[in-house]
Amino acid sequence: MPLKPGKVPPDLLKLALEKLEVSSEDILVGPKYGVDGAVVKVKNPLLALTSDPITFTSKDSVFYLMACNINDLISMGAKPLYLSVNLLFYEGVTEEEVLNTFEELGFYSKKFNVPVITGHTEVTPGLKSTILSGFMVGQVVKEVSPEKVRVGDVIVQVKGVAIEGTSIISREKQDELAKVFGEPFVKRCKDFLYEPGICLFDVGVKLIENYDIRNLHDPTEGGIVTALFESLQASGLGAFIDGDKIIVYSETKILSEYYRIDPLGLIASGSLIVYTEKREAERICSDLGKENIPAEIIGEVREKEAGILIKKQHTLIELTPYERDQILEVL
């Protein structure tokens, strides 16, 4: 039954909240009908906070909500703890859609062990699609920042580029691509969203819990070259980047060649840039390699005066960020 603008009916909201199944001794007040907030115990005085909205509606929107917020916390050296979510449903949303959204929230909160502890729900007049907005809290495990990066440190790329761009292009252009490359190829590219996956939870937590890391940065819009530029600018240092060592999945290469775009400037959620000492970088690459997680040393941090340079096919040029993500050349 389509819902009218205003509050979600009490019986429906109670049923929806049951799908979250939150239980933890640290959550003193959790998601409950008639309660507008949450109370939790804080074990570590250092908390990291982030917020990201998802403004499109698809069967993957809840996963995107989780992944985007988790990746932000991982980049701050924090292990995700709790999620507060605002669900603004469009006018005419059905009860089934509301319950399905909460069911997905419950599924992913269990998968990543990030309980949804509070939030807000309503049916909002004028919306054509549901808007999800998350506020996530994490416990700082490793204090990382651009200021900690030192000359002589190296740059490690974990997982290839551009996972998100590959998935988006294949979903938006699936009919065209299926005719050229076949259905199995298109399905494999579409599934990049989940495997190798845009969420950094598993590999990110492993890195911050087990290695001495200076700084982290997750490439998103503008691809890995933009992320490298941003993170080095924040550090106030220069670098040499070996572009030929940057990990690019074969499927991404095929799509990039077909559409004549640069995969290094394509939206790249799912990859991670790590700044650390060389010996620790080698240990990271070796350990992740044993788990079949791609990792490669792709550059070295230098003095600011050296500039930010990238080698591409034996040519050394200044690294410049993309003003427009390469995906806009395709869609």
Total count of helical runs of at least 4 residues: 10
Shape assignment: globular
How big is the Rg?
A: 21 Å
Cα-to-Cα separation, first versus last residue: 35 Å
What share of the residues lie within helices? 25-40%
Question: Strand tally, please?
Answer: 13
Compressed to H and E, one letter per element, the order equals HEEEHEHEEEHHHHEHEHEHEEE
Q: State which percent range the strand residues make up.
A: 15-25%
**Strand numbers in spatial order across the main sheet:** 8-10-7-11-9-12-13
Average of per-residue pLDDT values: 91
User: Assembly type of the shown chains?
Assistant: single chain
What ranges have pLDDT less than 50 throughout 5 or more consecutive residues? none
Class of secondary structure makeup: alpha+beta
What features would you describe in this structure?
The chain has 331 residues and is of the alpha+beta class. It has 10 helices and 13 strands. It has helices at residues 10-18, 61-75, 95-111, 163-172, 174-181, 183-190, 201-210, 223-235, 250-259, 278-290, and strands spanning 27-29, 39-40, 47-54, 78-90, 116-124, 131-140, 154-158, 215-217, 238-242, 272-276, 295-302, 308-312, 315-318. The strands form 3 sheets. The chain has a 7-stranded mixed β-sheet. Strand 12 (308-312) and strand 13 (315-318) form a beta hairpin. Helix 2 runs parallel beside helix 7 and helix 5 (174-181) crosses helix 6 (183-190). It is globular and about 65 Å long. The relative contact order is 0.15.
Brief sketch in words of this structure:
By secondary structure, the chain is an alpha+beta fold.
